[in-house]
Amino acid sequence: MLKEDLKNANTLASQIQTLTKELAKANDEIQRLKPLLQRASQILGLRSDLNKVNVEIQKAGGSTLNDEILKLKSQLETVTQQQQMVQERFLRLIIQGWHFYEGNAYYLSITKKSWDEAEEFCVSHDSHLASVTSEEEQEFLVKATNGVYHWIGLTDKGTEGIWHWVDGTPYNSAKSKGFWNKKQPDNWNHGNGIQEDCVHSMEKWNDMICQAPYPWICKKVLYPTRGFNLFPTLIPSNLPTKE
């Protein structure tokens, strides 16, 4: 009886530890989504402002003012719907295990596939194997991969030595030089004409034969990080005012 109780206690402790880790991950995602939630609160503020404007317009009267408020109401409904769709999309991605960084979503697999199979998986989820365009993004992925090599979307298949990102992002050889391991890429010949045409990443990049099975990282752009307003203003500058 004592052995059984001890076994149950150990099982319960293990479950608690697992749940604690999952809760920590969820909290991390919530912190990353705070800017989005702050923007959502802006929508509520806009709704309040619009109601105040509506009151003033009703006081002022006039068909032009009424037309303007109807237009504003329509814009508010559109933006509110867009905001709800964005929130629902983010929630679905969180549930599916995606992580967020600088306007992009990343999926890190726990299973292994060849480079081509991994890219097929990403495409089936409206994404591509990840491109890396900055030191900050590389650092984010280094932490996320946690000491395990993962496929990324860099390859020189087609023309040896001409590297390109599978998602179409321009490859900057000078900017990316520091991301490679020492003496990489080396295009090591594995025999039978099999060469290293695909790249996996841990702390640094390394070229590898594309047939080798590794976990992978998918990346999809959620919204551009510059010049983008998720919730545009609803109040036009030429709004009629009460005389």
Give your account of this protein's structure.
This is C-type lectin domain family 4 member F-like. The chain is of the alpha+beta class. It folds into 2 domains: 94 residues, no CATH class; 123 residues, Mannose-Binding Protein A, Chain A. Helix content is 48%, strand content 13%. The chain has 6 helices and 8 strands; from the N terminus they run H-H-H-E-E-H-E-H-E-E-H-E-E-E. The chain has a 4-stranded antiparallel sheet, sandwiched between helices. A 4-stranded antiparallel sheet has the order 5-4-6-7, with helices on one face. A hairpin with a 2-residue loop joins strand 1 and strand 2. The protein is elongated, with a radius of gyration of 25 Å. It starts with a helix and ends in a 22-residue tail after the last strand.
